[in-house]
Amino acid sequence: MYYYGNETIMSLEQVLRLKASEVRILEWVRTYEFLENSYGIDEAVPYFLEIKCEEGQVKIRKNRILDFPEYSCEGEATFQEVDEALRVFHEWAQEILAKKES
C-alpha cells in the first residue's frame, strides 16, 4: 500500500479486504496497474479501479489502461452510501482477478 498526497494505492487483493470505514477515512483509493504472479514477478493488469468520497457521494471508476500512463474510463457509478459503492467496487476487483487467473 502506498500513499500519494490524498490518494492511497493498493493491490487488488488488498482492496478485497477494504472496509467501508477505511474508505471513509482514506477518501480516495485506487488499485495498482500491476499484479504479482506466482513467481513474485509483477505483471501488467489491463485495468485499475478507483473509489473516491466526494461531497455527499461516493464515486467508483473502472479504468482501462491503454498505453501507460494513458487510460480510458470503462465504467463509472455514483452512490450515496459507501457500503453500496464498496460492494460494486469489490465485484469489479474480483472480475479483474478472475480474468487475470484464466
Question: Can you give a write-up of this model?
Answer:
The protein is α+β, with helices and mostly antiparallel strands. It has one domain. The strands form 2 sheets. A 6-stranded mixed sheet has the order 1-2-3-6-7-8. Strands 4-5 form a two-stranded antiparallel sheet. A hairpin with a 2-residue loop joins strand 6 and strand 7. The radius of gyration is 13 Å and the shape is globular. The two termini are 25 Å apart. The mean pLDDT is 90.
Question: What's the SSE blueprint?
Answer:
Blueprint: E1 2-4, E2 7-10, H1 12-16, H2 20-26, E3 28-31, E4 34-36, E5 42-44, E6 47-54, E7 57-65, E8 71-79, H3 82-101
Parallel strand pairs: 2-3
Antiparallel strand pairs: 1-2, 3-6, 4-5, 6-7, 7-8
Q: How do you describe this structure in short?
A:
The chain is an alpha+beta fold. It has three helices and eight strands; from the N terminus they run E-E-H-H-E-E-E-E-E-E-H.
Key structural traits:
single chain; 6-stranded mixed sheet; alpha+beta; 3 helices; about 100 residues; two-stranded antiparallel sheet
Strand order of the largest sheet: 1-2-3-6-7-8
Quaternary structure classification:
single chain
What average pLDDT do the residues reach?
A: 90
Largest sheet: 6 strands, mixed
Gyration radius over CA? 13 Å
Order of helices and strands: EEHHEEEEEEH
